[in-house]
Amino acid sequence: MDTQNTPIHIRLWHRDFWLLALANLVLSTVVYMQLSTLANAISADGGDGLSNVAQGAIVGVYGLGIFILGPYCHYLVQRFPRKRVCQFAIVAMALISVLMHFVTAKLASYPLFITGVVGMFWFGAFFGLAQMVLSSTLVIDVTESTQRTEANYASAWFRRFGIAIGPILTILCPVHCIIEPVCIYFYIAALVLLFFVHIPFKTPDDDTRVFGLDRFLMSQGFVLTITLLPITVILGMSASMAFHNVVFFYQLALGFVIAFLAEKFVFANADLESEFVSGAFLIIAALLLYLTRSGMPMVEHLSPCLIGIGSGLIGSRMLLFFIKLAHHCQRGTAQSSFFLSWEFGFAIGLFLTGWLVDYKLLDTIGLVLAIAAILVYHFFTHPWYMRHKSR
Asked: How far is the C-alpha of 214 from the C-alpha of 220, rounded, in Å?
């Protein structure tokens, strides 16, 4: 289990797994469509009387909401049909999205701030529930025990590509078309894909508690979370600064593709530290280019690609670390912990961009975070992980 990647098994890619992977991609895509649309809408016309902090809070507060329903996830999937729980969460997200569309169009100043924060908080709550059920329960239910690491790895890549695809669709579609009908179509597509998935029957546990950490947070993963957060904060800041720039997200997607291929062909037999260290150095290089050569056409294409490669490599490596750190029967909890760490860092990046605005300052903060991440990983996290991993 110390290899850099996992082998590809054809049997994993059966009908139900394909449907879940595509549902994961669709759900991730629509979430990042919503975030980019909302960020652009509230920043237009001076933010409708909102301060920079308030604008950042509205967009980033979903990163707090993703935690709120997590303690109830295990109870819900034991008490109710697990596929239905995921579909209910997606329907709730769609309804909140429609509400947010009218909020940004009709309200301004303080009413916009209150409604926006409450709406996006609960949007994040139901997004967190949907993702935890989908990635931590449904994907595991439809795969054999020997293929679950590979299934988690593949599913995470589908979700990761949504970060680039969502904003691209937002930029290419007129703003007034994003909610009606494009986003609604994506929610419907996710529901339909889940409808056709066959989930094996599971006998509910007799002693299921309403509130618990199972399928939510893995306490021993805190060190990995702290190490991953700086990288996802940088990704969130970089994406937020470019929500109007389609070239950035084309190149980010290209970077993800290169990272995926590199894991299979370049890092397959490399030292275990190499992915994180290489990814962090690529992100540092991208931020240095932004700080010293911003505006050059080559930089506008190369830097987002480097960020995509770096965050893709680090994200995949840290997911496998979470899984290998988990104790028996904690695979779903490890997957949820990784998801929460990733999205929370991304949300912090969105908030910082809305608050600070100054691109050069944000790139400087990102550079400091990347350097800190590589030092913490090399001198503390990696040795700690090697002492505490379970498999």
From this structure: 13
Find tokens 């993702």 and name the residue: 131
> Using CA atoms, how far apart are residues 31 and 10, in angstroms rounded to an integer?
30
Q: What is the pLDDT of residues 144-168, one digit of tens each?
A: 877 888 888 999 999 999 999 999 9
Instruction: Report the candidate in 29, 57, 30 with the shortest Cα–Cα distance to residue 42.
Output: 57
Distances (CA, A) of 332 to 91, 230, 275, 338: 23, 24, 24, 10
Token match 């997004």: residue? 127
Number of H helices, E strands in the chain: 17, 0
How do residues 297-306 score in pLDDT, each as one tens digit? 999 999 999 9
As a residue count, the chain comes to 391
Q: Give CA torsion, residues 100, 29, 134, 104, to 10 deg.
A: -10
User: Residue ranges of the chain with pLDDT lower than 50?
Assistant: 1-4, 6-9, 176-179
Does residue 45 contact residue 182 with C-beta atoms inside 8 Å?
no
